Amino acid sequence: MLLLAIESSCDETAVAILSGSPGEPARILASEISSQIELHRVYGGVVPELASRNHSLHLRPLVEQALATAELTLKDIDCFAATSGPGLASSLLIGATAAKALAVAAGKPFIAVNHLEGHLLSPYVGQGTVPPHIALIVSGGHTLLLDVENPGSYRRLGSTRDDAAGEAFDKVGKMLGLPYPGGPEIEKTAKGGDPNAFRFPRSMLKDPGFDFSFSGLKTAVLYTLTDQNPGYGTPRTSDLPDLCASFQQAVIDVLVVKTLRAARHTGRSTIALSGGVSLNQALRDGFARACEKEGLSLLTADSGLCTDNAAMIAFAALLHHFEGRHSPLDADIDPNLALAP
Ligand code: ATP
Ligand code: FE
Ligand code: MG
């Protein structure tokens, strides 16, 4: 079974081809990504108009490149898939329309995939099965804690009430004068810093629920900056590593505590981390230590599958296909598509 998937929900155009059979680990035959990070960097964030124009420019060459990498032609593909939401409407439309057109032309099925389901399942691409587990998605736009019974059966335990974890990294990075996106820059800068130098808040830890909040933490960093330098927000460069390490530790502490609490609450014994922020090594280490202590298994996605990519979309689509869940060709995109109630 060969499946080609397109991801274009935000600022990466991506095409992947996977081969798979039920119960076996999927094989990634090609996973091509054209990142627009450089293009948007000068604006400090993603500009939707520029993103969609670039998706249309890059999509066809990327499909051709993916087929060449996999040594296949379009005729070999059994099923086509694309992200249908959540994301930027004008960006989603490019990939979803292209995948439907390919499916119609080839007379093969089309599958619309929820981008967050792609992130959620990404740690399992190389595994044969998806066991019940607690999933934490920490990406640029989402912080979502879910109880996963099996693929397709998700119960939301908690989510962020304001900024997503990645968004907090990006906004704090901007405040600190670091290049966009802030996440990887903060991690790099934090390496020489003391995580206990600044005592930033761990929001909502006392709240018995599983929701998160990162805007208070962001404001606390801002106040620290303006205290240091009234009327001027730029930190002393000597403080940068400590600020980054302390901010990063505050995010990690909250994520670890709440996720482990969710595992205890549901009786699940596996935790799976996904999304761009799960690339953060300090976060992975924090989770590894806590899971070991509590006898839980921890699964993280391969590094190429954490930030946006089409292999995770193809994998989610593959699981839909195995259950015969195809999408109608008039299935619309939905910028606010939800994953679980
Ligand atoms: P969503 O999936 O919610 O729509 P997205 O697809 O833009 O958002 P991803 O591509 O999964 O999100 O991840 C991007 C985010 O990950 C950015 O906010 C980025 O700063 C963050 N990130 C990437 N690497 C790291 C890192 N090493 N440490 C912390 N954050 C990181
Ligand atoms: Fe994403
Ligand atoms: Mg992105």
UniProtKB/TrEMBL annotation:
Catalysis: reaction(s): L-threonylcarbamoyladenylate + adenosine(37) in tRNA = N(6)-L-threonylcarbamoyladenosine(37) in tRNA + AMP + H(+)
Binding residues annotated for substrate, in chain numbering: I137, V138, S139, G140, G141, D170, G183, E187, N280
Q: Which GO terms describe its molecular function?
A: tRNA N(6)-L-threonylcarbamoyladenine synthase activity
Q: Which EC number(s) does UniProt give? A: 2.3.1.234
Per its UniProt record, what InterPro entries does this chain match?
ATPase_NBD, Gcp-like_dom, KAE1/TsaD, TsaD
> Which compartments does it reside in?
Cytoplasm
Q: Keyword Ion transport, does the record have it? A: no
Annotated ranges, domain Gcp-like: 28-315
Q: Kindly give the Gene3D superfamilies that the UniProt entry links to this protein.
A: 3.30.420.40
**Which family does the UniProt entry place this protein in?**
Belongs to the KAE1 / TsaD family.
Task of the protein:
Required for the formation of a threonylcarbamoyl group on adenosine at position 37 (t(6)A37) in tRNAs that read codons beginning with adenine. Is involved in the transfer of the threonylcarbamoyl moiety of threonylcarbamoyl-AMP (TC-AMP) to the N6 group of A37, together with TsaE and TsaB. TsaD likely plays a direct catalytic role in this reaction.
Could you identify this protein by its name?
tRNA N6-adenosine threonylcarbamoyltransferase
- Identify the species of origin: Haloferula chungangensis
